[in-house]
Amino acid sequence: MNQMKPNSTIYAYIGTYTDEGRSEGIYIYRFSPSTGELEYAGVAVDVFNPTYLAIEPEHRYLYSVNTIEGDGTVSAFSINPHTGLLTYLNQKPSGGSKPVHLVVDPLSRYVLAGNFGNGSVCVLPIGGDGALGEMTSFIQHHGFSIHPVRQTGPRVHSVTLDPAGRFAVAAEYGADQLKCYRLEPSNGELIPSKVPTIAVVPGSGPRHFAFHPSGKWGYVINELSNTLMSYDYNAADGTITLKETHTTLPTGFTDRSHCADVQVDPSGRFVYGSNRGHNSIVIYAVDQESGTLKCIGHEPTLGKAPRSFTIDPTGQYLLVAHQDTDNVVVFNIDRETGLLHPTGHQIHIPVPVCVKMVAISN
């Protein structure tokens, strides 16, 4: 759990699709940890389809993918420490079509982005002023899998760094693989790690990957098969080994549903995943010795298509963005059980698909 400094303000940044003409860009809200309420602060309009966001570890800058068919881009913004508002800095090509995910390394040196449209990953350096520089690495994936529509070619749905920022895992949705890389700190090059490709069960559609804060385990949520796979992780050489597979849906549910996001509680005691269709958050307890998971419940998210969700810096709340019902709903996290409880608070935003939160010292 993050330790908040005195006189800090928590801000929530919400990425959206703007191409429908209903959304203006990245919405910014002040968040009250005492009540769970969100108060509108502003919107950054200098960006097209900012569907996924990442905040630099020192909380000075925010980066967004611009999900565009053809030549995708990544945008950089500075964060005003007094208001939380964003100022546009610059934009750089992502090297591929439809970038949908990005991450900033722990030392604020590089942004890594994944392109869904053509299945590739890129690295962009961060300048002293937070602006993005020219690409330092680009890797094109290849392959396909069994789904006749969604897996006709490579499609990267996420790229995630381990807690030390040394190794990255790209969820290769189109080819049913996890691609593993080492990030060279001196020049921003991505280099295939010791075991560069991990096969996933055909038809799974690996979407998002998350590391346990201990650095011992990792989890991938699979969109098409509605499963969550847990892995043992060797931080010394970046290798991952499959441990177990769990369904994300309750017994007896047979309607259409597709997973979206996976997040690990900052304490490392719980793992959460979102189900679009069942419209729920699945909750797993983590055995702290073995890392094995146990499903302990499903919480209805009070909206349709829970795309992305996040846990606030205090570890007390979980916020869910619903793409199809234009709402972000706030849940309280029971710190003992990991179960979720609606706070009664929500906000309405056009096409929200990503929520990121940060505590900024004033």
Q: Characterize the main sheet.
A: 4 strands, antiparallel
CATH superfamily: YVTN repeat-like/Quinoprotein amine dehydrogenase
In the predicted model, the low-confidence regions spanning at least 5 consecutive residues are none
The helix fraction, in percent, is under 10%
> Mean pLDDT, nearest integer?
97
- Reported by name, the CATH topology is Methylamine Dehydrogenase, Chain H
Strand element count: 28
Output the helix-strand order: EEEEEEEEEEEEEEEEEEEEEEEEEEEE
Distance between the termini: 20 Å
Count of structural domains: 1
Our Rg estimate from Cα atoms comes to 19 Å
How many helices in DSSP terms?
0
The CATH class is Mainly Beta
Query: Strand percentage, roughly?
Result: over 45%
**Structural shape:** globular
Would you tell me the structural class of the helices and strands? mainly beta
Label the CATH architecture: 7 Propeller
Strand order of the largest sheet: 3-2-1-28
Describe this structure in words.
This is Lactonase family protein. Belongs to the cycloisomerase 2 family. One of its GO terms (molecular function) is 6-phosphogluconolactonase activity. The chain is mainly beta. The protein has a single domain, classed as YVTN repeat-like/Quinoprotein amine dehydrogenase (Methylamine Dehydrogenase, Chain H, 7 Propeller), CATH 2.130.10. Helices cover 0% and strands 54% of the residues. It contains no helices and 28 strands. The chain has a four-stranded antiparallel sheet with strand order 3-2-1-28, with no helix packed on it. A hairpin with a 6-residue loop joins strand 5 (61-66) and strand 6 (73-79). It is globular.
